[in-house]
Specification:
By secondary structure, the chain is α+β, with helices and mostly antiparallel strands. It has one domain. It is built from 5 helices and 14 strands. The chain has an 8-stranded mixed barrel with strand order 2-4-3-11-12-8-5-14. Strands 7-13 form a two-stranded antiparallel ribbon. A hairpin with a 2-residue loop joins β5 and β6 (129-134). The longest helix has 10 residues, at 88-97. It is globular and about 45 Å long.
Length: 230
């Protein structure tokens, strides 16, 4: 995955102060990616996503993504924990601003994500402050109620995609087309972060959201990606 060709100063400005969502595209203008170079974090505002969508007639699908665009814009909105309203490429730029270099996203049965390891967790409101909640505590097996195994997240970056098949040379950041930000399994390479899990784990890890770990549907949280110390 090549580094996004954006001048360093522009990246810091765009992500720290920069632009929120695009109202014309149905995005929240107040949604901003925040880079904290001192804490070495990139964070985005998010809301707890509904697990049942009306157009799917109440059917609940196992979680495959931690974060992505919500319905109807998000390609995998029925499989997310939280809905975001930022461009995934802005998160990519934020991680580059911390000195990280994207690896290679995985897709398919034998593929495995490549890239620098990062921590991913939620900041959940608690009174006048907030508490840190690990991703493992947010995901459970709906039958046994056991929490998900520990996972390692990697900054893979997204594959580049040509939206128009008649113009194969005009490529865009794939995750900006699907809205996928953080993925558990290599079911898509149009995403910014993936875990070390493969499609072998996907066969038996059918996970759901632990309702005791997060606020109710629509509740505000913050998704945080923390880079390792230099």
């Amino acid at each position: 995955m090549k580094r996004l060709l954006v001048p360093a100063l522009a990246v810091v400005f765009a992500v720290l102060v920069g632009v929120g969502g695009d109202p014309a595209a149905g995005q929240d203008k107040s949604a901003v990616v925040v880079v904290d170079k001192e804490k070495r974090t990139v964070s985005v505002p998010a809301k707890v996503a509904p697990r049942k969508l009306e157009h799917l007639k109440g059917e609940v699908y196992p979680i495959e993504l931690i974060a992505g665009w919500g319905h109807p814009r998000g390609k995998k909105a029925h499989e997310i924990v939280v809905a975001i309203d930022v461009m995934p490429s802005d998160v990519h730029k934020g991680l580059e601003a911390l000195g990280l270099k994207a690896g290679k996203p995985a897709k398919g049965p034998d593929a495995k994500a490549e890239g620098p390891a990062v921590l991913v967790y939620f900041e959940v409101p608690e009174g006048s402050t907030s508490k840190k909640v690990a991703i493992e505590k947010v995901l459970i097996d709906p039958k046994s109620k056991k929490q998900a195994p520990k996972m390692t997240f990697r900054f893979t970056g997204s594959t580049m995609v040509a939206p128009d098949p008649t113009k194969p040379d005009e490529k865009k950041y794939g995750a900006d087309l699907t809205g996928s930000l953080v993925c558990l399994f290599p079911v898509t390479d149009e995403v910014v972060l993936q875990t070390d899990w493969t499609m072998k784990e996907e066969k038996y890890l059918k996970l759901d959201v632990n309702p005791e770990a997060l606020p109710k549907e629509g509740g505000a949280v913050r998704l945080v990606i923390e880079a390792p110390a230099k």
